[in-house]
């Protein structure tokens, strides 16, 4: 199979590393890719916003299968355009990608099909939103409707904080994404992420993970795209996974189909495990970054036929096998992230991978032969262990061998699971 992977993050490096192990793979390209992905695929400098250029490249190279990593091209309809050109593509249509692209869209779907989620209202102006907040009281959650790079959500512990967040959205802090606001009930519990494939009819549960959104140790400081993750998530017991499939995933698949937007791709469900059971916080329509890195470490099966079956309506024909081990990833980020940071700082040394651990590249580039950091999140040091405690020790042992002066990481990734394992 000739494959083109779209994206350039740590998620795509993990996908590329796994796909490169497939005996089905004949040729492998990535656009735009990164220096880590270049170990596995030929990098192509395509502008992924130019759908015609992506299609022309795919035709020229007789690409059989395109895998879209990030959400932005999906929300922009890249998968629709590729499919219309007759190219099998992993990733939902633009219409189905609204599950991630519009929080209001997802909340309305939950409402129509009785999917458990926090009670909510949608607003297009500040005053009625504020009236609703005053009526409901705090804690309460304010969300910009559209894609805001993970920054459009305020969990307000006081009414004043909620009112300020509403003003911030309507004053344009998140651009067009904040033109509509969702006000949502605060859900109390433990968070977990659940990954599940769908070809529009069938579901194939993948695995669970837990991430660390805050930049600082002890879950302090501002939110980020994720400073680390581990899999599996202990709170997602087999019984909880079964309930999630029945109460959340299956009604989503059938509801999306009924509404004329069949979903093909991966559901990344952000869940709150409350006293009542699993409730949906949000859907993403792509693999999580860095959650994908720990999932790919744990996946025993060949990924390529599984993704291809998802894209071609054959998901009932494949299965996914997982290692029982835990996997944990530590994100090394540029000092200053998620605020301003220096670009093009040199990375002097990345340690070799071993059986148990591997460093994935995210925001890196080669400048005149020197590996440099170009992004906020730069490297993902990922390891296995028989439990999270062992995976954590191995990941930090390898992290300490990275030589990059401008880098930092959290030192406590996995702390909740480690505490559980000690208890
Ligand atoms: P989101 O971008 O929707 O994933 O929200 C970011 C984070 O805000 C989530 O990971 C949760 O920690 C928190 N959050 C979002 N919605 C709620 C809610 N209804 N109740 C409590 N916390 C929430
Ligand atoms: N790590 C969270 C995300 O990929 O959205």
From TrEMBL:
One of its GO terms (molecular function) is ATP binding. It comes from the Bacteria. Its cofactor is Mn(2+); Mg(2+). The keyword Nucleotide-binding applies. Keywords: ATP-binding, Ligase, Magnesium, Manganese, Metal-binding, Nucleotide-binding, Purine biosynthesis. It catalyses: 5-phospho-beta-D-ribosylamine + glycine + ATP = N(1)-(5-phospho-beta-D-ribosyl)glycinamide + ADP + phosphate + H(+). Transmembrane segments: none annotated. Pathway: Purine metabolism; IMP biosynthesis via de novo pathway; N(1)-(5-phospho-D-ribosyl)glycinamide from 5-phospho-alpha-D-ribose 1-diphosphate: step 2/2. It is an enzyme of class 6 (ligase). Its EC number is 6.3.4.13. GO terms for biological process: 'de novo' IMP biosynthetic process; purine nucleobase biosynthetic process. Residues 107-312 form the ATP-grasp domain. Belongs to the GARS family. NCBIfam families: purD. This is Phosphoribosylamine--glycine ligase. It comes from Rhizobium rhizogenes. The gene is purD.
């Amino acid at each position: 199979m000739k494959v083109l992977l779209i994206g350039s993050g740590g998620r795509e490096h993990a996908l590329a590393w796994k796909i490169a192990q497939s005996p089905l793979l004949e040729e492998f390209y990535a656009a735009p890719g990164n220096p880590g992905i270049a170990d596995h695929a030929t990098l192509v400098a395509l502008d992924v916003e130019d759908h015609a250029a992506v299609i022309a490249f795919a035709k020229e190279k007789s690409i059989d299968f395109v895998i879209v990593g990030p959400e932005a091209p999906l929300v922009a309809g890249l998968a629709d355009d590729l499919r219309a050109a007759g190219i099998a593509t992993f990733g939902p249509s633009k219409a189905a990608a609204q599950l991630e692209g519009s929080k209001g869209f997802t909340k309305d779907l939950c409402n129509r099909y009785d999917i458990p989620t926090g009670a909510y209202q949608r607003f297009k102006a500040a005053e009625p939103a504020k009236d609703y907040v005053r009526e409901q009281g705090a804690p309460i959650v304010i969300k910009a409707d559209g894609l805001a790079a993970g920054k459009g959500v305020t969990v307000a512990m006081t009414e004043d904080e909620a009112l300020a967040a509403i003003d911030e959205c309507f004053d344009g802090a998140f651009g067009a994404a904040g033109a509509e606001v969702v006000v949502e009930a605060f859900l109390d519990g433990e968070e977990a992420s659940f990954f599940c494939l769908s070809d529009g009819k069938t579901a194939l549960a993948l695995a669970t993970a837990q991430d660390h959104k805050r930049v600082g140790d002890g879950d302090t400081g501002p939110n980020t795209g994720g400073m680390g993750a581990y899999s599996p998530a202990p709170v997602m017991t087999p019984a909880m996974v079964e309930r999630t499939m029945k109460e959340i995933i299956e009604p989503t698949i059938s509801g999306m189909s009924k509404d004329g937007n069949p979903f093909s791709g991966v559901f990344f469900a952000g869940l709150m495990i409350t006293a009542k059971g699993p409730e949906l916080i949000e859907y993403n329509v792509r693999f999580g970054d860095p959650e994908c890195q720990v999932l790919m470490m744990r996946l025993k099966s060949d990924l390529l036929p599984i993704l291809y079956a998802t894209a071609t309506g054959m998901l009932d024909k494949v299965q996914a096998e997982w290692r029982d081990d835990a996997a944990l990833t530590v994100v090394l980020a540029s000092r200053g992230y998620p605020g301003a940071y220096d670009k093009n700082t040199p990375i002097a040394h990345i340690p070799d991978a071993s059986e148990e651990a591997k460093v994935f590249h995210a925001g890196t580039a080669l400048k005149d032969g020197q590996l440099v950091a170009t992004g906020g999140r730069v490297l993902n040091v990922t390891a296995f262990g028989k439990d999270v405690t062992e995976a954590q020790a191995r990941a930090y042992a390898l992290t300490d061998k990275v030589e990059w002066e401008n880098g930092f990481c959290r030192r406590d990734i996995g702390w909740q699971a480690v505490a559980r394992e000690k208890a």
